[in-house]
Specification:
Shape: globular
Order of helices and strands: HHHHHHHHHHHHHHHHHHHHH
Distance between the termini: 32 Å
CATH topology of the largest domain: Growth Hormone, Chain: A
CATH class of the largest domain: Mainly Alpha
Number of helices: 21
Number of strands: 0
CATH architecture of the largest domain: Up-down Bundle
Strand content: under 5%
Helix content: over 70%
Radius of gyration: 21 Å
Largest sheet: none
Number of domains: 2
Structural class: mainly alpha
Length: 406
C-alpha cells in the first residue's frame, strides 16, 4: 500500500492527541478530588488548551512549510512525551495547566502538519476526502478509547499513571515518524514566500469565508451535542449520571463509524449529494426525538437504567454529521496550493475552536433560561444554515480551485 508508513504514523498521532484533547472533563474531576482546587480553577484547564491551540495556529501555521511538516510533528510528539512523563511523576496541580498548554500548542502544530501532509499524499479531491475521513475517524476512536484508558488506570492504580501509557503510545508514534520518509520537496521549493500574512490573504477569497463559516457551524453542532447529551439524558430520560456519561460513548463511536465508511464511499458518491443527505438525516433525527419526547415520562414498568430507545437514536446523530467536517475541509484544502495548505489549516483550527466554544455556551444559556429539552432545538438552526451554504460553497470552491491552478 502506497505511503503506508506515513499514514500509520499520522493516524497514530491523531489517536494520541484525541485522548489528550477529549479527556479534560475527567482530569478536571480528578484535580478537584486530589489536588483540592476550586471548580473555577479546575474549569480553567479547558481555556489553557483552547487558547494555546488558537494562538499557536495563528502565529506559526504559515511558517511550518519552511521548517518542514515532519520536523514539526516530531517536535510536537517530543513535547507531549515530556509533559506526559512530567504529569505522571509530579503529583501537583501546577503540572495540569502546563499539560494543557503544551497539549494545545502541540495539537496546533500537529493538525496543521497532518492536514498539509494529507495534501502531499493525495492525488485528486476524492482521494483527499477519503483520507481526511479516515484520519478524523481515528481521532474519534481516540476520543472513545481515552475515557476507557483513564477508567482502567483509575481502577487499578492512579489517574496520573494513564500518562505513562499515553507517553508509550506517543513514543511509538515518534519512532514511526522518525524512520518514515516524507517527500516535502514540492512544498519547500516555494515555502520562502509564506508568512503570517499568507493566512490573512486567503480571506480575500469568498470561498474561504464560506468555508470558515461552514466549519464554525459544524463544530458548533458537534460540540454542543457532545457537551450536553449527558445532561439531556439525565434530565429528560432520568438516567443516573453514571449511565448518562457511559451512554455518551455511542456518540463518538457513531461519528468514527460514519467517517470510516465515508473514507470508502467518498470515492464513489459526489460529495455535495452525500453531505446534504447526511445533514437532512441529522435534522430529522433530532427533530423526531425532540417532538416524541415532549413532556416525556417514564412508563410505570421502566427504570432509569433501561436506556430509552429515543436516547440511543439521539446519540446516533453523530453517524449523520460525522463525515461533514472532514469532507468540507478536504474540498477547500484539495483546491488550495500545497504550500498554502498550512495557512488554510490555521484558519480551520481557529474557527473550529470558536465554533465549539460558542455551541456549548449557547446550549448552556438556553438550558438555563428554559430547559435542556428546549435548548436542543437550537442545533437545528446551524444544521439548516450549513446545508444551505453547501450550494454556494460548491460554486465558489470550484472557482477557487480553478484560480489556484492558474
Amino acid at each position: 500500500m502506497k505511503n503506508l508508513g506515513i499514514k500509520v504514523s499520522l493516524y497514530l498521532n491523531y489517536f494520541v492527541f484525541a485522548i489528550l484533547m477529549n479527556t479534560v472533563g475527567i482530569v478536571i474531576l480528578q484535580v478537584i478530588s486530589n489536588y483540592d482546587v476550586s471548580r473555577v480553577t479546575a474549569g480553567s484547564l479547558e481555556a489553557y488548551k483552547d487558547l494555546s491551540v488558537m494562538f499557536l495556529s495563528f502565529a506559526v501555521a504559515s511558517y511550518i512549510p519552511k521548517f518542514g511538516y515532519k520536523k514539526t510533528m516530531i517536535i510536537g510528539l517530543l513535547a507531549i512525551d515530556a509533559v506526559c512523563i512530567l504529569v505522571a511523576l509530579v503529583h501537583q496541580y501546577w503540572v495540569t495547566p502546563v499539560l494543557y498548554m503544551v497539549t494545545g500548542a502541540s495539537f496546533g502544530l500537529m493538525k496543521v502538519s497532518v492536514y498539509s501532509t494529507i495534501g502531499l499524499l493525495s492525488e485528486g479531491q476524492k482521494e483527499h476526502t477519503a483520507q481526511m475521513n479516515t484520519l478524523e475517524g481515528f481521532f474519534q476512536v481516540g476520543s472513545l478509547v481515552g475515557p476507557l484508558f483513564f477508567g482502567l488506570m483509575i481502577s487499578i492504580s492512579t489517574w496520573t499513571d494513564t500518562y505513562y501509557l499515553i507517553a508509550l503510545m506517543t513514543s511509538l508514534a515518534l519512532i514511526i515518524m522518525f524512520f518514515t520518509k516524507l517527500d516535502e520537496s514540492d512544498v519547500k521549493s516555494r515555502a520562502e514566500k509564506t508568512n503570517i500574512f499568507s493566512m490573512l490573504k486567503l480571506l480575500k477569497a469568498p470561498a474561504v469565508w464560506i468555508f470558515v463559516v461552514c466549519a464554525f457551524l459544524y463544530v458548533m453542532v458537534e460540540q454542543s451535542l457532545n457537551t450536553w447529551l449527558p445532561t439531556f439524558n439525565r434530565e429528560v430520560f432520568k438516567l443516573s449520571e453514571a449511565h448518562a456519561s457511559a451512554l455518551l460513548a455511542i456518540y463518538p463511536a457513531s461519528i468514527a463509524a460514519s467517517r470510516f465508511l465515508a473514507g470508502y464511499y467518498s470515492k464513489k458518491i459526489f460529495w455535495l449529494k452525500s453531505q446534504l443527505i447526511l445533514l437532512i438525516g441529522a435534522l430529522l433525527v433530532i427533530l423526531t426525538v425532540l417532538i416524541s419526547t415532549t413532556n416525556y415520562e417514564l412508563l410505570p414498568n421502566e427504570v432509569p437504567e433501561n436506556f430509552p430507545i429515543f436516547s440511543i437514536i439521539l446519540l446516533s446523530t453523530g453517524f449523520f454529521i460525522g463525515p461533514v467536517y472532514p469532507t468540507i475541509i478536504s474540498i477547500i484544502l484539495s483546491k488550495t496550493e500545497k504550500v498554502k495548505q498550512s495557512a488554510m489549516t490555521g484558519l480551520i483550527v481557529i474557527f473550529s475552536a470558536l465554533g465549539g466554544t460558542s455551541g456549548s455556551m449557547i446550549i448552556g444559556l438556553l438550558s438555563q433560561h428554559y430547559d435542556v429539552h428546549s435548548a436542543f432545538y437550537f442545533p437545528l438552526i446551524p444544521i439548516t444554515i450549513l446545508g444551505l451554504l453547501l450550494f454556494p460553497y460548491k460554486k465558489f470552491t470550484d472557482k477557487f480551485g480553478a484560480e489556484s491552478q492558474s
